[in-house]
Structures are given as C-alpha cells and as structure tokens.
Amino acid sequence: MKAELTSGPIGRTLARLTVYMIFGFFAIIAFNLVDTWFVAKLGTDELAAMGFIFPIVMIISAIAIGLGSGASVLVSRSIGEGNNRKVQRFTTDSLILSVVIVLFFVVTGILTIHPVFTLLGASPKVLKLVRIYMLIWYPGMVFLVIPMVGNNAIRATGDMKFPSIIMMFSVFVNLGMDPLLIFGIGPFPKWGIAGAAVATVIARALTFALTLFVLHKRHHMLSFDWPGLHPVIESWKKLLGIGIPASGTNLVRPFGAAIVTGIVARFGPEAVAGFGVCLRVETLALMTLISLSTVLNPFVGQNLGAGKLDRVQGAIHRSQIFSLGWGGFAALTLFLLARPIAELFSHDTEVIRTIVLYLRIVPVVYGFRGLFGLTTSVLNVLKRAWDAMALSLIQMFVFLIPGTLLGARLWGLPGVFVFIALSWFLASILAAWWLARSMKTLICSEM
Questions:
Q1: CA gap 323, 378 in Å, rounded
Q2: Nearest to 117, CA basis, from 142, 97, 137
Q3: How far apart are CA 110 and CA 29, in angstroms?
Q4: Rounded distance, CA 66 to CA 370, Å?
Q5: Residue 377 CB-density burial (10 A; 0-12 exposed, 13-18 middle, 19+ buried)
Q6: What is the rounded end-to-end Cα distance, in angstroms, of the chain?
Q7: In this structure, are residues 177 and 202 in contact, taking their beta carbons and an 8 Å threshold?
Q8: Average of pLDDT values for 153-161?
Q9: What's the CA gap between 127 and 216, in Å, rounded?
Q10: Whole-angstrom Cα distance, residue 213 to residue 413?
Q11: Three-state DSSP state, 96
C-alpha cells in the first residue's frame, strides 16, 4: 500500500483532507438531530427518554473513537514504513478487539438498564421507554463501533472521502426510515420510539457493511489468516496502549461540560438554556479545527513511519498558524453576530443575555483551543496518548473547574465565562510547550 501523504504540498494536502472531514462531522451531527427531531413529535416523555439515552451513546462513542485512534495511529505508521502485513494485521485485530469489547458492553448494558437509568433520574414512565429503545440499541451496538473503528483505519490511508460518504449515506437512510417506522406510514408498523431504535440499527448496519467492503475491496486492509492468539494479544496491547487514554481524553470533555453546567445552573434555568445553546454553536464554530486535528493523525503517522520528520514539523507549524487564524476569524464573527444568533434560539431576555455574553468572551480563545486539540492528536501519533490524557485532565481539574468556581464567586456568570476562556488559554500554552519538548526528544533520538 502506497503512503499517499508522504509527498506533495503539505498545506494543500491538509486542506483537502480537512474539507472531506468536515462533511463527515456534519453527518454525525445530522444523524443525532434527525432522531431527536422525529422522536420529539411523539411527546415529551419520548423526548426525555432520548435525553437520558444520549449520554450512554456518547460514552460508547468515546470508547469507539479511542479504539479508532489506536487503529489509525498504528495503521498510518505502518503505511509510512511500507509494511503492508502490519497494516492488515492492525486493521483486522482492531476490528476483532472491537467485537470483543462490544459483546461485553451488550451483556452489561442489557443487564443494567434499570439501575443505570434510575440513577440518572428517569421516572418509571420514561424508564419504560428507555428500556424499549435500549433493548434494540444495545444488540445493534456492533454496527456503531465497528464502522467507527474501521473508518479510522480507512482515514489512516489518507482516504477521507469514503468515510465521509459512508456517514452521509447513513444519515439519508436514517432520515428515510425514521418516519416510516416511528409513525407507521404506509405498510410499515407504527413502533414509536422502538421504530427510532430500529431505524438507527438499520442505518448503522448498512454503514457496517459498506465500511468492511471499502476496507477489503478498495484498500485490501483485512487479513483472513489466523496468526495465533499470542500475536493477536500483542497487537491488542499496542492498540489499547493508545486507545484507553484516547478514550479517557474523549470522556473528560463531556464530564467537564456537565460540571460547568452545574455551576452555571446557580444563575437560573435561563442561564443553563443559554449555555446549552452556546455549546452547540461552539461545536459548529470549532468543526473546522476539530476536522484538522483528526486529519493530522494519519498525516503525521505516515510521515513518522517514513522517517520524514521535516514534513511532520511542517504540518504541525502550518496547522498551528491556521488554528490561530481561524480562531480569530470565528471570534470576530461570533462577536458581531452574537445577538442575531441568540435571537434565533430564544425570545427570553435572560437567555439572550447569556448567549451574547458567552459569544463575546469565550470565542476569543478558540484559536488556542484549536492548538490544544492539535497537540493531543499529534501526541497520540507519537505514542504519547497518556500525555494527551494528562493534558486534558490538567485543563479540567487544574484550570477549568477551580477557575469557574472562583469566577462565579467573584464576578457571577461573566466570571464563569472568563475563566472558561482562561482555562483553554493556559492549557494550550502548556500543551504547545509539551509538544515542542516531545518533538525535540523525537528528533534527538533519530539523530
């Protein structure tokens, strides 16, 4: 397999791959919105059930993303080395490992539906709806996890187009199946929230089949030879060495958001409503930088494997400059459009005030927040995933949570937002230093 990312203009290559990745992220957001929009038409209890289900879906997704990161790192570096056997072995072993982990979560999930969702606060009526959904969703979890891991392996080749096409395809399937199975249109049964779960599983099953097809037929990345249990376990150790901390890094962020939401809740439900809107707007504003950090993973991996450290440094440098530039553009745009954006979501004066306040403070550091994401992505490829996780924990427990508590006490809601921004600024400075030190160590070891 040819290493596609080890030659050609660095900036142009990163830009092309990032555009494909943006479409993929839009597809992920659209998939969740489609389900929520149709289920909302069934009633408040059904919508509440989806609200309780969402954190569990996010946890499983974070674990799948972590496994996918491990696969992407090891596959991309093997491609850079020109070792096709290792490419096939790591791809295949990552999928086998995913199946083993999924089986564990399926059994555990089904057995703990009642205690877990009761602990989360679901009422008996809502819990009944949650149970209906999860008894379908849990067995179909393999169709969520395998494509996420497989698509990361595909991206490791430098192919961002096909994973994005596969994700967009799943959105259209879900969009078509949801109304048919939820409301019983035409010959289809009216299954309500169960229909939403079945539609999701069908859409994911099709992406499962497409992902395996692309892996096998287009990229020839699957191996059907059994090397023995010991080599597979050794491969799993390497995958988990990156996957476990990468999953932890992904889990830290929603956990931190939940804690900050609790701090914001002290200022009333209007503040929480406005803060929730801002988090969604923020996701869109940061999507380009998130896509770039994802693209850096295979780019750096292939070039490290090929021993082209100059291209690695060039990619990091260009990405950092772009991050600061895009962050500045996003901050200025949101500052000027803060009130119109707020009025799109609410007519409540306090909600609007919260949104405007946030969008005129926190986006100032979006460029630095992008630097932080780029750093953790590169550290994963350098096989310093535990360092990346440590940086995320420092950002949350050292800077974010103590800072927002102090800000709330000193200056109220504006203080919370100021310290959110300050936490990302300080964490990004630390991350940039950490990455520079790691790269220096790597360069010295290669000399």
A1: 14
A2: 137
A3: 26
A4: 19
A5: buried
A6: 28
A7: yes
A8: 89
A9: 41
A10: 51
A11: helix
